[in-house]
Design goal:
By secondary structure, the chain is α/β, with parallel strands linked by helices. The protein is built from 9 helices and 12 strands.
């Protein structure tokens, strides 16, 4: 499996903490950014392109990232995409994936599959998409079919332009755009319990009100909505720097005997 994270120069402080806390434990992990940074030397790749690192250009940025990944790291059975504001439980991530028969080379090379945090498209009623903020796993066969050649890359660009005209949304909706183009390439979507936890600093009410660093550390079950199966948290997204640091501290503390 090839794992990579996406950041940009103004977010490097967060990427450095994520590298120190979880990413450095992932063999071969690579950061993609817009500017070099000595603190991430040896793990950071600066993409030389003209797409501005702004929210309104997220779709084009991610097309560039995926094209670079496939050009230089093609041939893997699975690809895991992460961000600088993610947190990954390294101890539980791979066992959980194996339990779900996800990290399986034969399946990765054969099946068009994208596993992640699924939601209903706000712009395309009746269509599911893989949430862009959360981590996700894309099979090698999917990447090859979706963006793995000049012909498919050209088709990808055409698909994005078509969706922009049809949906009338800005380029920031990269998760909706890219998922829909993957679906048109034959990729199937699957939901993974444990990838859907937003950082506990994001909301203060609703389903996430009780989600704390202690709850993550002591492996309390969680759910985003009542219908979602309960399970352990594997990754979180939209984490702020102070929450990553808090979680790092709590992870070193023992749980109560009954936890």
């Amino acid at each position: 499996m090839f794992s990579f994270g996406v950041t940009y120069d103004k977010n490097h402080d967060l990427a450095v903490e994520s590298e120190r806390i979880w990413a450095r434990a992932m063999p071969g992990f690579v950061w993609f950014s817009t500017q070099p940074d000595e603190r991430l030397r040896g793990r950071l790749i600066v993409l030389d392109h003209c797409v501005d690192p702004v929210y309104a250009q997220m779709t084009n940025r991610m097309i560039d990232v995926w094209s670079h990944v496939w050009t230089h790291w093609h041939g893997y059975s699975w690809y895991m995409r992460l961000w600088d504001d993610n947190w990954v439980d390294i101890e539980r991530m791979l066992p959980a994936a194996m339990k779900m028969h996800l990290i399986n080379d034969e399946r990765g090379f054969r099946e068009l599959a994208h596993h992640g945090r699924l939601g209903g498209s706000p712009f395309y009623p009746g269509h599911l998409f893989v949430g862009g903020g959360a981590s996700s796993f894309l099979s090698g066969a999917s990447v090859a079919a979706w963006i793995g050649s000049p012909q498919t890359l050209s088709g990808m660009a055409d698909c994005v332009r078509f969706l922009g005209d049809v949906l009338g949304t800005d380029n920031y909706a990269e998760d909706v755009y890219l998922t829909e183009c993957q679906l048109r390439a034959g990729v199937r979507l699957y939901s993974i319990v444990g990838l859907s936890a937003q950082g506990y600093g994001v909301t203060s009410d609703g389903a996430w009100g009780a989600l704390t660093a202690h709850a993550v550390r002591c492996r309390h079950p969680f759910h985003e909505v009542p219908a979602e199966p309960r399970g352990p948290i594997i990754t979180m997204h939209y984490m702020k720097k102070q929450h990553l640091l808090e979680l790092e501290k709590v992870l070193q503390e023992p749980c109560p005997p009954d936890q």
